[in-house]
Design goal:
The structure is a single chain. By secondary structure, the protein is of the alpha/beta class. The chain has a single domain, classed as TIM Barrel. The chain has 11 helices and 14 strands. Strands 1-2-3-5-8-9-10-14 form an 8-stranded parallel β-barrel, surrounded by 8 helices. It has a two-stranded antiparallel ribbon with strand order 6-7. The chain has a two-stranded antiparallel ribbon with strand order 11-12. A hairpin with a 2-residue loop joins strand 11 and strand 12. Helix 10 crosses helix 11. The longest helix has 21 residues. The chain is globular and about 60 Å long.
Length: 357
Amino acid sequence: MRTKLGLFNLMGLRDQNTSPLSVVRTTVDMVEMAEDLGFDIAWFAEHHFTNHSICPSALLMIANCAPRTQHIRLGSAVVALPFHNPIRLVQEIAFVDLLTQGRLVLGLGSGYQPLEFDRFGIDPATKHDRFLEMWDIIDQGLIGGAVAYEGRYYTVPPTTLSMRSFGIPMPDIFVASREPRIVARCVAGGHTPFVSYGYRGLSRAMETRRQLEAHWSAAGGDPATMPLGVQRLIYVTDNEADALHAAACVRDFERAWQTLRGRDFEQHGAFVRLMPFNDEPPLGSFLDEAIIGSPETCIELLRRDLAMLKPTHLCCMMGLTGIGRSETLASFERFGTDVLPYVTDLLDLGAQPGRAA
């Protein structure tokens, strides 16, 4: 089976000299380029309260990009379910599915940043239980066009969705979780686990795949046919200095991920002070483990990863925070012209119209 291709948009803000509007415009440009190159999905993040990402709603970005595109599917990576009111969220999902005319792909997650849980007043210890209840409500609303639910955390009296008729096909669902109960639900519904391993290379990715396969098998699934979405950080350049700068941006991405997983960090307004993390490797390690470099280097690493990991979906993060608009777009253009033609035998390119909505 060939691998479908996605573009991940984190939409990070480097510093106070970076325009948030420029980040949005660059993202839209990349989505339009991704459609032209035959990408299957453009993904959008959801994060809150820091410069790690200026996008608080993947669904809003999907609605923004829907009229600017025709065929590429548009996905949330992810909707952090515990931070949402369930009956409002299910309406918004149904409405965005309508706006995209069936091109919505629904990525679901439970969140990981303590700051976000604190500001929303949610106990992170409850996130998996909340996630599963919210998923029940989403299923009810999207499958039947109505919700009636009573759980431990959420109660919804019988409610009809005006924009969602009975019988409309469900969006494809990707799930960013290795929680065994959630993986078991993916097995039961035929949904796709979604993992990111940041700067960490193939060995860590293979370890993550084996962990998922164990959970998949324990829930009665066949690991040999398990779908899998993986995320890779990619930057194409022939210039050694640019490659090292991209590696430094990958290092900052990892520092942000490590920092935001904790509570004790320094913040100036929305901007988080990034510090080296425990056992941080040298800069060269970030260059070696991410897919950064010449087209020939990127081709070699992509072919290796696809052959070893065998993902059903490869999600490319190409807009690295800290790299300017023109350089980002130039790297993506080179990816399309100088890399993709040499891996097409492993990829399922050519985005198709979505489901009827």
